């Protein structure tokens, strides 16, 4: 199915996402624990989808948007799924406006992750930031 790059500073979260996505038949082509590593791996691996945590060392708020921007500039059709904690709605909306495809909120259910990933991979356009139904996934 899809080649996926997982970006999160938490090894536990990377493992959890890897397990969920592997069970869905996706290939995890790489994992990164910071924005610099993610950008390098993105250029090298050219994944179909990137999961990008909003809050990480070196990547928080505006820096998450910067990392996202680097990926979208590298590949305008990049599909980036933001991973956020509750209370990060404003940053998520800004990420969507900057080119993120969608987002999921931690803690999440495996079925929700699988559903959002399927939707993002099928989509030919970025998510609409005004679409309230994506908030709270």
Please give a structural write-up.
By secondary structure, the chain is of the alpha/beta class. It has a single domain, classed as Response regulator (Rossmann fold, 3-Layer(aba) Sandwich), CATH 3.40.50. It has helices at residues 11-23, 35-45, 62-74, 89-98, 110-122; strands at residues 3-7, 27-32, 49-53, 80-85, 102-106. The protein has a five-stranded parallel beta sheet, sandwiched between helices. Helix 2 (35-45) runs parallel beside helix 3. The longest helix has 13 residues, at 11-23. The protein is globular and about 30 Å long. The two termini are 23 Å apart. 36% of the residues are buried.
Unreliable stretches, pLDDT < 50, 5 or more residues? 126-137
Annotated CATH homologous superfamily: Response regulator
Rounded to an integer in angstroms, the radius of gyration calculated over CA atoms is 13 Å
Strand order of the largest sheet: 2-1-3-4-5
Q: Any idea what the CATH architecture is?
A: 3-Layer(aba) Sandwich
CATH topology (level 3) name: Rossmann fold
């Amino acid at each position: 199915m899809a080649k996926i790059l997982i970006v999160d500073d938490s090894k536990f979260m990377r493992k959890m996402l890897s397990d969920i996505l592997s069970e869905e038949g996706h290939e995890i082509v790489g994992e990164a624990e910071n924005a610099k590593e993610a950008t390098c791996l993105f250029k090298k691996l050219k994944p179909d989808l990137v999961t990008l945590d909003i809050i990480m060392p070196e990547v928080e708020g505006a820096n998450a948007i910067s990392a996202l921007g680097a990926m979208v500039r590298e590949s305008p059709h990049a599909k980036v799924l933001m991973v956020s904690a509750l209370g990060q709605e404003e940053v998520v909306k800004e990420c969507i406006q900057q080119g993120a495809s969608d987002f999921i909120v931690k803690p999440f259910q495996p079925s929700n992750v699988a559903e959002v990933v399927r939707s993002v991979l099928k989509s030919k356009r970025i998510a609409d930031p005004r679409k309230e139904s994506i908030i709270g996934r």
